[in-house]
Design goal:
With 101 residues, this protein is of the alpha+beta class. It contains three helices and four strands; from the N terminus they run H-H-H-E-E-E-E. Strands 1-2-3-4 form a four-stranded antiparallel beta sheet. It has one domain: Nuclear Transport Factor 2, Chain: A (Roll), CATH 3.10.450.
């Protein structure tokens, strides 16, 4: 099942409804500042870029710094029920890794 635009919007909307705890606020600030500086692509571009590689529903998106670079971590419930984590370079949209829980 492909991840539709409406599912993306719902997922991102739900993510924004999480209570604003200090750590969450820091994450949002990091993301906003990195986007303004051009260090990361907007999440809509990232999701569009990896759409063909996702065979399920994205249920969580996080922006993290790993090995000195910003990456989007996408948590996916695959169509077969397995949960995977896909790391995507936030600047280039290159899929860096995929692992299954």
């Amino acid at each position: 099942m492909q991840f539709s635009q409406s599912n993306r919007a719902l997922t991102l909307s739900l993510a924004l409804l999480v209570p604003a705890l200090p750590a969450v606020a820091d994450d949002h600030d990091l993301a906003r500042e990195a986007l303004q500086r051009g260090e990361v692509r907007p999440i809509a571009e990232i999701l569009s870029s990896v759409d063909a590689q996702v065979n399920g529903d994205i249920i969580e998106v996080e922006l993290e710094r790993e090995d000195g670079r910003l990456v989007y971590e996408l948590k996916v419930i695959e169509s077969d029920g397995r949960v995977s984590e896909i790391l995507v370079d936030a600047a280039s949209a290159e899929v860096l890794s995929r692992k299954y829980d």
